[in-house]
Every structure is written in C-alpha cells, then in structure tokens.
Task: inverse folding
C-alpha cells in the first residue's frame, strides 16, 4: 500500500539524550515536512524539504535537525538542546511544493521526555 | 504570514444533527485543506479546496476565495465524526501550510 510510515509510535527519552524519529514514504513525493503538535493546539512546522539533499527551517527549528539523503526518507533528530520536546510529531509529504499540492500525513510519533 | 482562525472552538451535537465549521484566512491562499484528526492522532484528509464546492458523502466544503473563508458542512452526524477538525492554508511566496487551532467536535449518541 502507498503511504507514509512513522516509527516508533511511542518514544520515551531521558533528559539530555538525542533521539531520532523515522519517516518513510512510498508515494514518490518530492516534498516532505515535519510538524509538532502540543495538546489542544494546531500544528507547527519544524523543517521541510522540497528535494533530496536540501531542507529549510520552519517556524520552530531550534533544537531539531534533519537530513534528506533519500527521496523516501526524512528523519528528524530531537536534540538535547530542545527545551521542551514532549509532544506529538507528525511527518507529511506532498507531490511537490505545498502551494498547489495536497499534503498527506503519517500516523505520528508521541515523544515523552522523562 | 497568514493567520488562520477557526470557529467554533468546541461543538457538541446529538447524533443525526447537522453542523457548519468555519475557517477564516487573513490573506488569500493558493492551497486550502480540511483535515479530521481522529482520537489516535491520525490526520485524515477531507478536502483539498482552494476554491469552489466539493462533496464527499455526508461531508461537503465550500471555499469563497475572494472573501477568504471556507466552510465545512457535516450532515446527519455520527459518533465516528467526533474528533478535531483542522483547516490549513498556504499562500504564494511561502512553502508553509499554516494550521488553525481546530474545532473539537463531540457527537453524542
């Protein structure tokens, strides 16, 4: 089946540790995105990539890093510099840029910092 | 960047009732989408509707681009319609899909 997969579904981290969230898509989409959602809030953009080996910061990039070495993969690392990392993280993709293309989402990863 | 305002923030219905959710944008948009977030957090695409009217079963949506708003209609609501409904838009010159804060819908049996 075509779609977007994220792993793990739940992730627990101790303070001071870096963790990497996986996002894979088999839709042959060029553009991929990472969002953060806090309880009762909308989604905020962390990073996005429109093409392999290129990515840009979103609105809340501090404390996060990404890579885009393959078209189908866009992993997100939550570093120890992120002050409040406990949140729900959603990965998305679209055929090309978001202006004229529908964006689709993965099932999300819930990160809890202990 | 654009601001997205959704109303109402909360809505409680009895099964079988109809409802209208509204999304206002501070500026014109080239992409406008409606999503339903289910209790497990999954965002389900409902409509891609930068302008015009679309229908899908009991759901329909209308976007009046010149007036910078969109409406989502839910008819004969069911308990499975419960969840949070988000609208989001993107404008020219930006690669960002900006989300509203959502409307939390509760449908009681």
Result:
């Amino acid at each position: 089946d075509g779609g977007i997969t994220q792993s793990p579904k739940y992730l627990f981290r101790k303070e001071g540790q870096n963790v990497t969230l996986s996002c894979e898509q088999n839709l042959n989409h060029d553009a991929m995105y990472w969002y953060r959602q806090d309880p009762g809030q909308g989604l905020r953009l962390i990073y996005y990539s429109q093409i392999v080996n290129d990515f840009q910061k979103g609105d809340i990039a501090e404390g996060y890093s990404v890579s885009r070495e393959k078209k189908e993969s866009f992993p997100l690392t939550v570093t120890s510099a992120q002050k409040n990392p406990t949140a729900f993280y959603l990965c998305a993709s679209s055929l090309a840029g978001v202006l004229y293309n529908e964006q689709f989402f993965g099932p999300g990863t819930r990160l809890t910092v202990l | 960047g654009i601001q997205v305002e959704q109303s109402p923030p909360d809505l409680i219905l009895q099964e079988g009732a109809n409802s209208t959710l509204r999304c206002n944008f501070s500026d014109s948009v080239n992409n406008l989408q409606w999503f339903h977030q289910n209790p497990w957090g999954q965002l389900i695409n409902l409509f891609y509707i930068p302008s015009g009217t679309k229908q899908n079963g009991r759901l329909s949506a209308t976007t009046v681009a010149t007036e910078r708003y969109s409406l989502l209609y839910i008819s004969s609501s069911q308990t499975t319609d419960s969840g949070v409904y988000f609208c989001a838009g993107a404008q020219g010159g930006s690669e960002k899909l900006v989300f509203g804060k959502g409307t939390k819908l509760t449908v009681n049996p």
